[in-house]
Amino acid sequence: MSTHEHDDIIDAAVRILLEEDRCLTVGFSPDGISLRFPTTRKLAEHLGIPHYYVLPRFGEMERDGLIRRAERVGISTTAAGTERLLAVMAERHSERAEKVLGAGVLRALEIRAAQASSPSPEG
Question: Residue 71 has what pLDDT?
Answer without folding.
Answer: 85
